[in-house]
Amino acid sequence: MNKTKLKLGTNTRLAHSGSNPRDFHGFVNPPVVHASTVLFPNTATLVNRSQKYTYGTRGTPTTDALATAIDELEGSAGTIIVPSGLAAVTVPLLAFAASGDHILITDSVYSPTRQFADTMLTRLGVEVEYYDPYIGAGIAALIRPNTSVVFTESPGSNTFEVQDIPAISAAARKAGAVVMMDNTWATPLYFKPLENGVDISIHAATKYPAGHSDVLLGTVSANEQYWQRLHDGFIALGCCAAPDDVYQVLRGLRTMGIRLDHQRKSAFDIAQWLETCSGISKVLHPALPSHPDHALWQRDFSGSSGVFSIVLDKASQAQAHAFLDALQIFGLGFSWGGYESLAVPVSLSDRTLAKGDYDGPVIRLQIGLEDIEDLKADLTRGLEALSA
Ligand SMILES: Cc1ncc(COP(=O)(O)O)c(C=O)c1O
């Protein structure tokens, strides 16, 4: 059965896409292929590389299974799998930006993306310019003849500004720049970058696809126009992922729709409740009608994930620490998308444009799979410590 040709719901696709059990003697999961060397039957086949698999860095049945599953979700021509979400940012940037180029990056970007651009890309002779995430079609005014990449991330890291991706993509494409998007927050379940004009869709699969805070992985998916160049860059860099991690993410993908749906509901419920709590001046969650980008989010996204931020009302840093230290269920730690709730203080010190209008410390919350009432009780403990 060719499942790619059937019209299927998202969870059915997540449960079945990627590999064909008939290719593996009927076993429902593909094998975890640990590989460097692949043998060829004769010299002609070796010299011409005329067989499907040729070397471990270039793909295995395990990486193909995950890449195929992601292609089905993204509607992409091809997907590369790299060892972390950060590598899913750096590999396409290295593949497409060259010395003498100018690239545009949203100021609301994930901080390590900025660090990579400001250090390595700059050293390689790429001019990096940050733009206001709310620029929309106005990006056209910043595009120069040598602008090779427009990098987007929506919603923005930690502060959740929603970008007008179709407008930005249309302007960038018209000028011949490749549009990249870090779509980790929404996953391809809640936003489809390629259908909205993006050329290259980036995911930290470490988050929702892996889902259990134990694996680092990244995926990068390209449309037909840019797939070959992305793949060439990936092969040149040798930045391939370990087979056990790839397998774990394929395994995580099977339940991602269910987990994400639960986390979406819990996070939205908690975000609504937090809006009514004293001690909090703002809840930065695009699915809330109070969020300034709610209409844009509603236009382009089909759901919201489980991570958002709160602004503590005119609190000091010491009060913010008291809030965090009082939490017993929320762990203090980076990352998100796992089964457990987390909280971290947010620093916006590297931003130049998207500094926001926040009258107190910003704290990011990742809502896990725990019971909502327990999470609310924990946040109440934090708010009590804040006001003590
Ligand atoms: C938006 C975004 N992109 C990329 C990454 C990087 O992912 P990883 O931790 O797998 O390197 C993160 C990690 O927090 C992230 O939040």
TrEMBL record:
Reported cofactor(s): pyridoxal 5'-phosphate
At the top level, the lineage of the source is Bacteria
User: What protein family does this chain belong to?
Assistant: Belongs to the trans-sulfuration enzymes family.
Q: Return the InterPro entries for the record.
A: Cys/Met-Metab_PyrdxlP-dep_enz, Cys_b_lyase_bac, PyrdxlP-dep_Trfase, PyrdxlP-dep_Trfase_major, PyrdxlP-dep_Trfase_small
Reactions catalysed: L,L-cystathionine + H2O = L-homocysteine + pyruvate + NH4(+)
Catalytic activity, EC:
4.4.1.13
UniProt entry keywords in alphabetical sequence: Lyase, Pyridoxal phosphate
Q: What is this protein called?
A: Cystathionine beta-lyase
- Keyword Lyase set for record: yes
* Pfam families on file: Cys_Met_Meta_PP
- Any idea which GO molecular function terms this record carries? cysteine-S-conjugate beta-lyase activity
Top-level enzyme category: lyase
